[in-house]
Amino acid sequence: MHQLIILGNGFDLTCGLKSKFSDFYRNRMNAACSIESIPKDERNVWDVILSEIGENDPLWCNIESLISAYVFHDDDLGSRLDHMYEQLVWTIDPSKPNRSEHPDNAVYNYVSTSLGKENVSQDELTHFLLTSLKDYEHIFASYLEKQVDNNNKYREKAVEYYAAIRNACINKAQQKNYETSILNFNYTTPLKSEDQQLGIVAARNIHGSLDKTDTIFGIDGKDVAEDHPAVPFTKTYRLMSLVPYESETAKLCDSNTRFIKIFGHSLSRADYSYFQSIFDTVNLYGGVTKLVFLYKKYPNKSDKTVDEQAIREDLYSRISHLLYEYGSTLDNKDHGKNLMHKLLLEQRLLIKDVDENISVLPSNIYLL
Question: Is the entire prediction scored with pTM above 0.70?
């Protein structure tokens, strides 16, 4: 029997890593919350973008949404780059109505200075953003490597929570009969296909790994037209540049996969394409695969206490959006509309507290 476990950044956070993008950027600014704390020769245009939008902007802590807003789609009028160049045109032509000043001017000036050109075309600026993004990925990877190296409990916690996820919803007598594949949206590799004692038969870091120094940031390419300048920023395009892992030759799931367990993933739109492919592979509507969403209770109130119901409600909302979006892709639209209802009736949609399955493991298992 087989199951697929999907891990997001919440897994690494649960294991004690400061792996959020906001953690990285605060560290990069040396807690001064100012770009001036970064030496000029070490600055990146994405530092400029982040410093301009500020921490109150919801895009500040979501690098993938920020990339999308700048190069693909920010509102009905286009991307922030589109707005920047429209503003430049209106500034030249006084007959055009004025708009409020956009912070993107600082980005334009930075790129102009870096390229040694007063006039930079939108295509040139877009290319500069992509080149700089690749550099930024390496900077982020270096930060994350230090976090892993400085956390001597990370591997232990990773194995502990992996075991809890692996065993969730499976009868104790059957747990040893399950083979497990892992689709990891993180860049860390605490769990590998070599960990056969853990029942892992395949493990893949879909966005690259620290081991291979090929981490990527990207946007969902589902709605990006093939001739749009944002195509090189899509995850699909970026993934083509990665060297395949040996373990990737093994299938992560098929129609016989009994469970898909998801923990620590935000279920953001940027990754909907992956979920669509997985759900299609297992024939989610007509098959037998169970979806298990696991959550961890954490202090989510101002007084540092836990409101578990609020945590569950937020997860319900994210699951609903994901399944509704997936349902809209099915050929039979009636099936799409009642997908979630069908899964609930068949007890194939489950939500569990991950800590319910935490147990003491043999000490030697952490040494693998």
Answer: yes
Per DSSP bridges, beta strands 349-353 and 2-7 are unpaired
Angle of CA points 58, 18, 368, to nearest 5°: 140
**Half-sphere exposure at residue 263, Cβ-oriented, CA atoms within 13 angstroms:** 26
Strand-pair category, 257-263 with 200-205: unpaired
Q: Distance between CA atoms of 133 and 150, rounded to whole angstroms?
A: 26
CA distances from 187 to 2, 29, 38, 140 (A): 24, 22, 24, 10
- What is each CA distance from 294 to 5, 14, 279, 312, in whole angstroms? 11, 12, 18, 10
* Measured distance CA(198)–CA(210) in Å, rounded: 21
Rounded distance between C-alpha atoms, residue 184 and residue 204, angstroms: 6
Model pLDDT for residues 178-227, shown as the tens digit of each residue: 999 999 999 999 998 777 789 999 999 999 999 877 889 999 888 888 88
At 31, the amino acid letter reads: A
State which H helix or E strand residue 319 sits in: helix 308-327
- Count CB-CB contacts under 10 A for residue 251: 13
Instruction: Extract the tokens encoding 353.
Output: 């507290």
